[in-house]
Fold each of these.
Amino acid sequence: MPWGGLFLSCGCPSQEQQKSCLAAVGGFNYDVPFHGASKPNSTTNLTHEAAEASDKVLVKHGFFVNHSHVLVGSGAATFDHAKLRFFPRRWANVEPDTPVKAGTRFCICYNELIPWVLLPLQIAYVTDGNVNSSGYGKGETTRPSAGEERFSVQLDEEDQV
């Protein structure tokens, strides 16, 4: 299954293969000071200039910083549905009963032409700041990539998700 730092499978990986993959990796593969760096509390209460300075520190240490926002739709029903779709479904598989809580380790499995790739990850933090916002940050546990990614969904004052 492991090949050059990648975890591969000829077919859609079973739960046992995913458990084996997770057992073969340790915790986060990036330095402790950067655990939770994508958490919104680290920049929400800062001025725009302070947030940019924080991003520059991450870039200086080799991280790529991207702030992408996508309009999903509008209304409370769309917001509630989006919260249930925290894990990708169209291009990848994640065990459906994976809990969204800090410390949870899981695999995202996706098909790359012939082999399936297993990407072991760990949830670094969960944010449920208020009724109109929810999210989590997941961190890499294997090479070749390292770092953290935040997924969040918000219902804004204009009723847009």
Amino acid sequence: MPTLAVPRNQDELAEAVGDTATLKEIAKTPETLTEYIVAYAKEQAKTDPGIADQIRDETQKQFADILRNDKLLASLNRLNLDPRANPVARSKHYNNKAAGVGLDEKFGTWSEYFAATWAGARGQEALLAQSEIAKIQNSFGSTVPSDGGFLIPELLRSELLRVALEQSLVRKNARVVPMESLTVPYPMLDSTSNASSVYGGVVGYWTEEGGSLTDSSPTFGRIELAAKKLTLYSEIPNELFTDSIISLQQFMNESYPEALAWFEDCAFTDGNGTGQPLGYLNAPAAVLVAKESGQAAGSIMWENIVKAYSRMLPSSINRARWVCHIDTFPELATMALSVGTGGSAVWMGTPAADGSSTPPMTILGRPVEFTEKVSSLGTAGDINFVDFGYYLIGDRQAMQAQTSTEYKFGNDKTAVRVIERVDGTPWIKSAITPRKGSNTLSPFVKIATR
């Protein structure tokens, strides 16, 4: 505050605040007010050394309390310092009722966890840790099947899924159902037509005053989510466990989440439902948009896109997204709309002369996801219009890990196996006949083979 004198004591502060002109200058803006308060605080610290001593003593006391509090210190060590996210314990993937919660205080990082559970670990501390994991795992009985591995702490499991979410296509958009047991029934409305009722049998009608009411009986169905076993396997040099456990932690933090997202997505996309999830491409409710008359093999026409859009449930359009094989890009980029004897490109518009323009990532206003996980160009499902809100993912929310030094003993490697239990299935069992019109509608639309 260059134009205002900084008060040296309480009396001078009261005098400054009591003067209307001075107070108006002090409170001219939030910045001037803050500057004035900070300047006064600094002046007090200089004129009264006791204040600085009090601050120092209180800081040392609080820091000492933290060091004496093991649980608090452990929680500080487990903080997720990723600036893009909240602490893991607050993420939507963390379940405070999951089997691995009891291990969170013991293992804050992957390096700590594998240092204790590695098959080659020796020493009393490792044996005690393994015994503690086994005790918690056994207490859950049949809800955490024994695969010969160790239960993974919930903190690490939820972090694994949080990172995987950034790489996934289906999970980040689907409806995820926590599974407290290996099999969970989930309600559904068995709806096939909106011609005379909605939601599987709910009817609405107009009546005169005192008129009789009409019964309605919605047909409720049930989907059975049964946890399937997804196993991730890798072979890691023993040196990483003995000499470079930090490098192993980096591997777990990056490679395993990406691998988990990859194999989940593959099953959620085209899984056959036998020992694995039922993918949305195989949904019984999916509708198939036929090719145009005389359409060339492997081609994509604007009419294909428009007709696929028209088969989406109207209530799902604002959530739906296009999921296309990357091989479809050349056809999408060059498809044209014929107008009389001329025509023009549709999706790309007029590209820059030097080819530097970025292609749009929407079609008809909805996002486009390119992937290699759907059907290849020219086959049914190479272009899909999907509302993933109608896809259910059952997440058992319990993972296990096991290491073996014997299996690859001759190669001086440790075999690592991580097991997740998860299921996936479309939430609707058949396409819906609209109130008016004959073309069925669905949240799963795909273009037929061409």
Amino acid sequence: MSLAFRQEAPGPKGYPVVGTGPDLVRDLVGTFTAAWREHGDLVQFKLPGKRKMFLIVHPDHIKHVLEDRQPNYPKDPLSVGKFEPFVGQGMFTSNGEFHFRQRRMAQPAFKGSRISAFGPAMVQSTADLIESWRPLAERRETIDITPEMMRLALTIVMRTLFSTDVSARAGEIAQAVRTCNAYTNTRLQRFVELPEAWPSKARKEFLVARALLDKFVYGLIADRRRSREQHDDLLSRFLNAKDEGSGAGMTDKQLRDEVVTIFLGGYETTALSLVWAFSLTSRYPSVEQRIRAEVAEVCGDREPLASDLPKLKYLRQVFAEVLRLYPSVWTLSRTPLEDDVIGGYHIPKGSQVFISPYLMHRHPEFWTNPEGFDPGRFVTSATGGAPLYAYIPFSRGPRLCPGSSVAVLEAPLVIARMFQDYRLTLAPGHVCEPTSNVFLYPRGGMPMRIERADAVAGVR
């Protein structure tokens, strides 16, 4: 279709002057969902000023942006600019050749036997958490498992990718990351721009949290530069990397940005997928029982191994379905460099284009019983029988999440090991709803009762 025919995409009318800005700030997940259901697979939102914002929820349109015309759709600079005070210029925020150079350096750390070698650290970290929960289980206490999974996932990512044990400080560091993310999320949803240094309580808390993280990360870098011990991990790959043109290595600031990028996307996403997984297995007891039976059959009384995963077929199907319903990265944003047409609608250059895996995974045209929890849909297909770009928990195309292979190893191993000792039961009356944040957090946390598995179901 010619760009001369500039058909405007449909969308909610919004309010005078401010458009749909207040609704997006109030409830981004709910506003996106309602607009999609009312207006279809390509929605335009009216914002203050001349800014244009679109939501696309169709596999063909998503493929167009993430693969077919990917060079025309770099990461949205407006959103990236709001992340930079926290993460700097790492793989998450960068575009172009710099991004792909950093990605090429990191990619070998996430492949093949290297990933399988992470298994023992993942299982041991889970066993350590299990041990710390013993008093809770004896008293059958109810706790919010969200910060617990954050602490666990951070311990795992530091042990596996950075050869560093932070278990003693994992809670403190995870809370600092969460504070920085909360501040970033507030800025992302602010449609009336304020100066980045605008004084506020939230900004003060952000600066304190960022300073704590910087002190920790720069200390980690300094220790590794001084050490003569050899490590075959992600940090060493970055330390040893040389620019192809100048031969110069990465500065401490560049190293800091990449480490913090891993903090942002390398552990929090997996932690949240575990939170949603345990909530779903609690809500569907037959699924939980089947996982326990499979783990008992494959592993017996020993701890699970990475080599067990091919046999833990049902558990892997369950995790795939968890990622369908609650993909941790629930939106992706891009900005076209040139005018484009998607689905017959004009997409002007410089606009914000949002892709929502959360909504794409609930599209009734591509999913049977889209709101239901049905691990069986993944028995014969890695995409649940849907088109490739209808299942995008880790994105697709050239910017596919490099750590996806770690997540699909880590989460099933954690679940298997946890179920050998405990049953996690959702607090009565708690409603599991997602809330819009940088990632897909549960509204009100995820309160769950911790019980010994053998006391409940005669397991182990």
